[in-house]
Amino acid sequence: MKTIVDTIAATRDITLEQLQTVLSATDTAAVDYLYARALETCRSVYGNAVFMRGLIEVSNHCKNDCLYCGIRRSHASVHRYRLSEEQVLECCATGYRLGFRTFVLQGGEDGWFSDTVLCHMVQAIRNAYPDCAITLSLGERSRESYRQLFEAGANRYLLRHETANAAHYASLHPAEMSFDNRMRCLQDLKEIGYQVGCGFMVGSPGQTVETLFEDLQFIRRFEPQMVGIGPFIPASGTPFENEKAGSVETTLRLLAIIRLLHPRVLLPATTALGTLHPRGRERGILAGANVVMPNLSPKDHRKDYALYDNKLCTGDEAAECRVCLDRRIRTTGSQLVVDRGDFRE
User: Which of these, 78, 54, 56, 55, lies nearest to 65 by C-alpha position?
Assistant: First the structure.
């Protein structure tokens, strides 16, 4: 397998057969070599820096009914909320004091957040924190909406493609959602000028090695600035509540492969990894990830933004979480930095 890892690193490409070999490998030394090459590749571009993104979950209202999602439209027991602009700015103020220089506004596809409302919010953050990056993760919108938000001051947009296979996409989403529209959104975002993030769940129902190969090839072609992957975790009250969770080990191997395929990518060690394994985020860093996204949302709403069960750190104060995470990241030989953490061209 060492030869395969070296070939992937040299060519920045992977075959289906190579992917199958890497994902099924049982030789611990060979897997460790994969992680070591990925970590070396990451540090050759970004040094030992790990970048913080302050996550602000602005709303758990959503018009969509995705089969895997804990805040899906038809989930009647979800306690719905949305944050005001004042609350969002308070979260930013807390985050800025703690060293965050990127704020990520994440939410369901909530029609209350019109272009007017969001543009005003983005402009308010931009005016208050001109040295910070503003990332949005608010789902599918029109090209004109994305353009207005970009002009208001947003720098980045996260929109997981979920899967690069149209049939698999249809099996995860309601009929009114379209694979082609998801791809249209990602292309629009890139053309407008955002730093764009895509990604997928590892172990989602119906996923195969073949669909994962399609995901990796899509990432190679699209060349996003960010890729967010994490293990699928079932959410109670959804059609997939009894499905098996994704594998931490498979997720780590895919993180390493993505780092080798796209050395400059900004790659989070996700909360989902930390939810399934007590050192999941640290292991992600050691497999080539270089971003973490602690939660700056108001503490009394974090439990309501439950995309999956048993989400990590829903009770921590932001400052508590920041200190804990700093200590954890240092155990990997990396360092949390006060930096926007922009993509290196």
Answer: 78
CA distance 259 to 267: 8
CA distance 239 to 136: 28
pLDDT band for position 305 (cuts 50, 70, 90): low
**Which of 321, 316, 237, 327 shows the shortest CA–CA distance to 282?**
327
Q: What is the pLDDT of residue 300?
A: 74
Quote the CA–CA distance of 35 and 17 in Å, as a whole number. 19
Q: Residue 345 — very low, low, confident or very high, per pLDDT cuts 50/70/90?
A: confident
C-alpha distances in angstroms, 130 versus 24, 135, 223? Answer: 47, 13, 27
- Is residue 234 within 8 A of residue 241, CB to CB? The reply is yes
* Structural domains of the chain sorted by starting position, each given as residue range(s) with its CATH number in brackets: 2-336 (3.20.20.70)
Residue 156 pairs in a beta bridge with 135, 195
Query: In terms of C-beta density within 10 A (0-12 exposed, 13-18 middle, 19 or more buried), how is residue 17 classed?
Result: exposed
Backbone angles phi, psi at 291, to 5 degrees: -140, 140
Output the pLDDT for position 74: 95
Q: In Å, what is the CA distance from 82 to each residue of 96, 109, 149, 325, 336?
A: 22, 11, 19, 27, 30
Cα separation, 324 vs 162, whole angstroms: 30
Classify each residue of 130-162 as buried b or exposed e, where b means 16 or more C-beta atoms within 10 Å of its C-beta: eebbbbbbbbbbeeebbbbbbebbbbbbbbbbb
pTM: 0.96
